[in-house]
């Protein structure tokens, strides 16, 4: 099976995963703290949410990093030709788990912002509704991704079962 997996493609994909990990790390160290401080500075009504937004943002990026550990492992299994085995299931579970926790964190931020932003007199309505729209679209995309991964997990289970049956026959 490994002859079907191009090592250059897998290497390129792993390089992209490394870049994503580095971007998440940069986000945790620089971007999220800067954004939470900027939000508190621009809108006094959001000052109390600076630290909760910071913690939730860092945890969200940690969920992304954890999910990409599962992706990395799936790439490794693909390269060795054993992706359609029981070894792949925990990887998919890790991706689904990371996405699920990230989705809950997004929902918490959306709810907190909806409550605190709506009562912030200094925040223009356009800013408020723009942030709500971005958070809402992100939440919908995350839910869609989780549903897609659940379907992919079912397909992986079916392929693994068929591969196991074929192995027993041979």
Portion of residues in helices? over 70%
Whole-number mean pLDDT? 93
What distance lies between the first and last C-alpha atoms, to the nearest angstrom?
Answer: 16 Å
Quick one: biggest sheet? none
Radius of gyration: 20 Å
Question: Please, how many domains?
Answer: 1
**Shape call:** elongated
Poorly predicted segments:
none
Provide the β-strand percentage band. Answer: under 5%
Q: Decide which structural class fits the backbone.
A: mainly alpha
Tally of individual helices: 4
Instruction: Give me the count of strands.
Output: 0
Which series of helices and strands comes N to C? HHHH
InterPro entries: DUF2975
Keywords: Membrane, Transmembrane, Transmembrane helix
Protein name: DUF2975 domain-containing protein
Pfam family, one: DUF2975
What is the compact description of this entry?
The protein is mainly α and 170 residues long. 84% of the residues lie in helices and 0% in strands.
Q: Can you describe what's shown?
A:
This protein is mainly alpha-helical and 170 residues long. It has one domain. Helix content is 84%, strand content 0%. The chain contains four helices and no strands. Helix 1 (7-42) runs antiparallel to helix 2 and helix 2 runs antiparallel to helix 3 (88-118). The chain is elongated and about 70 Å long. The model has no long low-confidence stretch (mean pLDDT 93).
Question: What are its keywords?
Answer:
170 residues; elongated; mainly alpha
Would you spell out the secondary-structure blueprint of this structure?
Elements: H1 7-42, H2 50-80, H3 88-118, H4 125-169
Helix pairs in contact: 1-2, 2-3, 3-4
């Amino acid at each position: 099976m490994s002859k079907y997996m191009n090592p250059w493609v897998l290497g390129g994909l792993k390089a992209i995963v490394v870049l994503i990990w580095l971007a998440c790390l940069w986000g945790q160290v620089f971007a999220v703290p800067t954004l939470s401080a900027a939000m508190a500075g621009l809108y006094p009504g959001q000052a109390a949410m600076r630290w909760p937004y910071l913690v939730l943002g860092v945890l969200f990026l940690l969920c992304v990093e954890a999910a990409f550990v599962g992706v990395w492992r799936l790439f490794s299994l693909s390269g060795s030709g054993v992706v359609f085995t029981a070894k792949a299931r925990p990887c998919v579970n890790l991706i689904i788990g990371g996405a699920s926790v990230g989705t809950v964190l997004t929902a918490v931020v959306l709810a907190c912002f909806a409550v605190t932003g709506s009562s912030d007199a200094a925040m223009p309505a356009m800013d408020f509704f723009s942030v709500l729209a971005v958070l809402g679209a992100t939440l919908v995309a995350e839910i869609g991704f989780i549903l897609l991964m659940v379907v992919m997990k079912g397909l992986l289970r079916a392929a693994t079962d068929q591969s196991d049956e074929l192995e027993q026959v041979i």
